[in-house]
C-alpha cells in the first residue's frame, strides 16, 4: 500500500481506482485530510470521492474553510455524493460551514438536505451569529429519571449511535426540561436495578442558546467539562456544545484579537487567495489614523526647535527613548488584554493594578536608564541626567497608557484588543517627545 503523497499521486495518474480506494481506507482522518489538502484541486476531488462515507464526514470537518468550499464545488456534479456528505456532517459543523457561505449558495445546499436535516439546519441558523445556539448540536442522548440503570443503557444503545458524545448523559422530564446530567462512568459503576433518580443531585452547569459564544469559554474552563447542555429560556434541553467546538471559538477569538492588536481589521481567510484590494483595505484605515496622530509628535519637535539646534546630541537618544516607552506600553497592554480575556482580572480591578504597575515600571525604567547612561556618558556626558530621567518617566508613562487603555475601552464597550500596539506606541511617542524635551529645556535652562 502507498505511504507517501507521491505514491498516491501515481495511483491517480495510472487510474488504479480500486487500489487507491483500498489505500485510502488505511489512513486515519488526519492523514487523509492532509493528503486531500496538499493535492491539486482536481486530485483532491478524486481523493475525496473515493473516501468511505465515514471517512468523508471526518475529513471534511478537518479541512480549512476554503478547502471545504473547493470540495463542495467539486462534488456539485455528483448529486448523490454531495447530498450524502451534507446529510452526514454533524449539524454544528454543517451550520458553521453554511454561515460562511453567500446566502444564495447556502440556500441551494440546504435544499439538498433531508427534511429532518433541513429543519435542524434552519433552526440552528436562526440563532444570532456568534451565539451559543449556532455552536450546539441536537445529537445527544437524554434519559428519564425513572429509568433503571439497565433501562438507561438499553436506551443509550438504541439512540446513542449518532450522538456527538456519550461521556455525559442528560436526564429530562416529560417536557424535555433538563433535570441533571450524569457521567457514563457513574452509570457503569451503578447497580443495573438502581434508579437513575437515585444517582442525581439536580445540580448541573448549562449554557443558554442566546448567550454569546465567548461566555462558554470561561464555563468550560471553570468546570472542566467535555460537553455542556444548551437550554432555552424555559429550561428546555435544545442541544449540547462540545469542547472541540469551544476550541474552535478560542482559536477564532485569539486570531481576531491578535489582528486587532496589530491594527488589522476584517482579515480574509488566506493572504495567498485574498484579493489585493481587500488586503489593502483591511490595513489602511488604522495606518492613516496613526499617521495623523504622529503629526502631534512632529509638532512637539517643532516647538523645541531652539533646544535641538543648541544641543544636537539630544536627537541621538530620541528614537531610543520613545521606542522604550512604546515597547513598555505594548507589553503592559498585551498582559492586560490577556488577563481581561481570561477573566483573571475584572474591570473594577484597574485601580489595584496602578500601584503595582508604577512600581514595576519604575524598576524597569531605572534598569534601562542605567543601561543608556553608559552610552550617554561617552556620547554626550552633558545630557546624561536628562536622558536617564526621561527614560524612567517614559517607561512609567508608557506602561500606564498600556495598562489603562484596555480598561477604558472595555468600559466604553469597545473590544479591549483595539487598544493595539500601534495605538499605544503612538500615544507613548507623543508623550515621550514632550517629556524628553521639556526636561531638557528645564535642566539646560533654555
- Name the poorly predicted regions: none
- Look up the CATH topology of the largest domain: Tetracycline Repressor, domain 2
CATH superfamily of the largest domain: SLC41 divalent cation transporters, integral membrane domain
Taken as a percent bin, the fraction of beta residues is 5-15%
Q: Give the strand line-up of the largest sheet.
A: 1-2-3
CATH architecture of the largest domain: Orthogonal Bundle
Distance between the termini: 84 Å
Helix content: 55-70%
What is the rounded Rg? Answer: 30 Å
Tell me, what is the CATH class of the largest domain? Mainly Alpha
Task: Give the oligomer, counting copies of the same chain as homo and different chains as hetero.
Answer: single chain
Shape: elongated
Order of helical and strand elements: HHHHHHHHHHHEHEEHEHEEHHHHHHH
On the 0 to 100 scale, the average pLDDT is 81
Number of strands: 6
Biggest sheet character: 3 strands, mixed
In DSSP terms (H or I, runs of 4 or more residues), the helix count works out at 21
How many structural domains does the protein architecture include?
Answer: 3
Decide which structural class fits the backbone.
Answer: mainly alpha
Question: Could you walk me through the main structural features you see in this protein, from its secondary elements to its overall organization?
Answer:
The protein is mainly alpha-helical. It has helices at 5-13, 17-25, 29-38, 41-50, 53-62, 65-75, 79-88, 91-98, 103-110, 115-125, 132-135, 149-159, 184-189, 213-223, 243-261, 276-303, 305-310, 313-342, 350-379, 384-411, 421-443; strands at residues 142-144, 168-172, 178-183, 207-208, 227-231, 237-242. α14 packs across α15 and α18 packs parallel to α20 (384-411). Its main location: membrane. It is found in: Cell membrane; Membrane. Belongs to the SLC41A transporter family.
